[in-house]
Structures are given as structure tokens and as C-alpha cells.
Amino acid sequence: MLRQYDFKNYNLKLLLNVWILSALGILFINSANPEYTMKQLIGVVLCSVVMLFLSVFDYSLIVNNTKIIYIVNIILLLIVLVAGKTVGGAQRWIEFAGFTFQPSETCKIALIVSAAAFITKNEDQLNHWKTLMKFAAICLVPAGLVFVEPDLSTTIDIVLILCAVIFIGGLSVRFIGWVISISVPVFALFVWYIQTPGQILLQDYQVTRIMSFLNPAKYASTTAYQTNNSIMAIGSGQLVGKGLNSNTISDVTVTVRDTGLVSEQQTDFIFSVVGEEFGFIGSVILIALLASLAVQCLLVAKKANDTSGKLIASGVAALIAFQSFINIGVATGTLPNTGLPLPLISYGLSSVLSIMIGMGMVLNISLQSKKY
């Protein structure tokens, strides 16, 4: 529902940050693979329309209808498992009329809203085991469906985002300590188990990715090859980079991008384009813009009128922060190879739609805040 707003309070700084990152994303995608430039441009324009509409749509109406959002989210994830498009051994996309859609991306926003609604309703009993078990059950169904696609990286991303949301919602520090004390040995047991013959938790390629991170020398010519080349591309940019669409690397007459040493550079390894062509300074500027976007969402959360607004804005901030950290960590070899896009920078219209839906709600939360 549209309502009357004082548009003098519209958060233009946040909107401008989103559009600057989107424009840079189109620029980097064009440099990585021009075939995707027009699709990304059209997608950014259409998703911006969605974002602007949601920025003047009362977010409380969305929160009040989380059951519908949750059910639709589950249905879309089930459709993926039943009739989804398979690419590279993973069944993650719905194909319709020549377009592909990845429900696991919008699942992040759906779960942020669902978590915000649940925590707001159960705020006083949040630290009771019964409440926490209900919260875990609500989150486990969609997260489990994403996991079996299989999409381990997005599942981890969702878990991290939800942990941030429930922490902001008032989860006891003592309870967090218990979780950490249990999680560390469980994680060690998990790493041991996935290396045993016949393990059933992960796909073989997922195990290989984890092991190539733990022992990169052993996998230097196979699964670690792409990550090593990404690091080489970023390092070759040195301080200021070689310039947009550059065509030199050391004494060779072509870039790492042109030799094809980093495949699908327009998606998961887009940061290697940034590092090679704009160097350390350009990389730091991009990271600063992403950090600024997350911080601005947190500032909106701090000044939100109600708990649900605070949690939604915090969840979107967590999405930007965690996903940026993981993507850049993979490109620089500090994290295992995963398949998460760099927010608003990587090619992928489902990701752009998810981010801009979240930003639209954050803009509306900001617009309704009396402190702006």
C-alpha cells in the first residue's frame, strides 16, 4: 500500500550507493565478457523499478504477510528440485520463456523478512529453548531445500545472515557462547567425516573444493587452478591496475582474462577483473563502497521505528557484508571456492533482484523513520 511520505527524508545517499555499485558492476561485466553486458543493464533497470516501488510501499504490510511469502518461497524451491534446470551438476534454476530464475537468491530476502516477523512476535521469549527450536524449524525447511540442490555456499550464507538477524534481535550472549563451544568440535568432526569413503553429506566436487583450500599444493593443477589464476590476475594489477579493458600482463600480450585462465569471470570471480584492471586502489574503493552500503543499512536499522524494521535492515546489511566477504575471500584464495556472487557487481539477475528488493525495503524503513 502506498502512503503519504515526506520525500525530503528519502535516503538518496543509500540509493546513490546502490546505483554506483550497479554501474560499476556493468562496467566490470563488460570487461570480463561483453556478451552479458546488455542483459545486466536491462536487469538493473528493471530491478531498480522494483526497488523504487518497494521504497514507497509500507514494509509493515510485507511483514504482516510473511506466511504467504514463506509458502511461495518453499513452492519455488520445490519446483527447482522437481523441474529445475541443471547446470554443472547443480539444479538451482527455473527456466521460463527463455529466462532463468534462481529462487535460492530471493530465498535470502524471504527468510530475512520471515525471521524479522518471528523475532518481533516472540521478542520476550527469544532466549527460551522452545522459541529457538521453532525459529530453527522455520529456517531449516527452506535452507534444507537449498542445500539439497545442491548449493552449500548459499546455505552457509543464509545461516550466517540468520545468525546475524537473531543476534541483533536479542539472542543471549551466553547462548552464543554455548553454540560456539559446540560448533567448533562439530566442525572439526565434519571436516574429518567428509574425507571418509562413502560420506553422504556433500557432493564429491564440494569435498574437493574444501580439500583444495586446506591443501592447495596437492590440487594446484586441478580445483585450485582457477583460484590461483585469480590471485595471479589480482596481483598483476599491482597498485593502480592496467586500466579498463587492458591487454597486458607482465611480458605477455594478453590479460589473464583473455587467456581464459579464470573461467566464468563475470560471476564468481568478478573481483579478479577489478584487481587486474584497477589494482589495489580500485579494489579498496570497491570494498569501501560495499562496506558503506552495509553500514548505511545498519544506520537505518539503528533509527528504525520498530523491531521488524530494525531486523530487516540489519539482515540486508548482513547479506551485503557476508556475501562480499565470502566472494572476495574466494577470489583472493583466503576462503574455499564457492559459488556466491559479489553483490550488485557479479553478473546474475536473480542476485540483483534479491539485493534490490532488500534495498527497496530498507529505503522504506528509512523513509518511515522520524529521525531522518
Give the biggest beta sheet. Answer: 3 strands, antiparallel
Instruction: Give the tally of β-strands.
Output: 3
How far the N terminus sits from the C terminus, by CA atoms, comes to: 21 Å
Query: Radius of gyration, Cα only, in angstroms?
Result: 21 Å
- How many alpha or pi helices? 14
Mean pLDDT: 85
Secondary-structure element series: HHHHEEEHHHHHHHHHH
Shape: globular
Strand content: under 5%
Percent range for helical residues? 55-70%
Estimated structural class: mainly alpha
Report strand order across the widest sheet: 1-2-3
Secondary-structure topology with pairs:
Elements: H1 12-32, H2 37-55, H3 59-63, H4 66-83, E1 85-87, E2 90-96, E3 99-101, H5 103-121, H6 129-147, H7 152-168, H8 173-193, H9 204-214, H10 225-236, H11 256-259, H12 270-302, H13 307-331, H14 349-368
Antiparallel strand pairs: 1-2, 2-3
Helix pairs in contact: 1-2, 1-12, 2-14, 4-5, 4-6, 5-6, 5-7, 5-13, 5-14, 6-7, 7-13, 10-12, 12-13, 13-14
Q: How would you characterize the overall build of this protein?
A:
This protein is mainly alpha-helical and 372 residues long. The protein is 66% helix and 3% strand. The protein has 14 helices and 3 strands. It has a 3-stranded antiparallel sheet with strand order 1-2-3, with helices on one face. Helix 7 (152-168) runs antiparallel to helix 13. The chain starts with 11 loop residues before the first helix and ends with a helix.
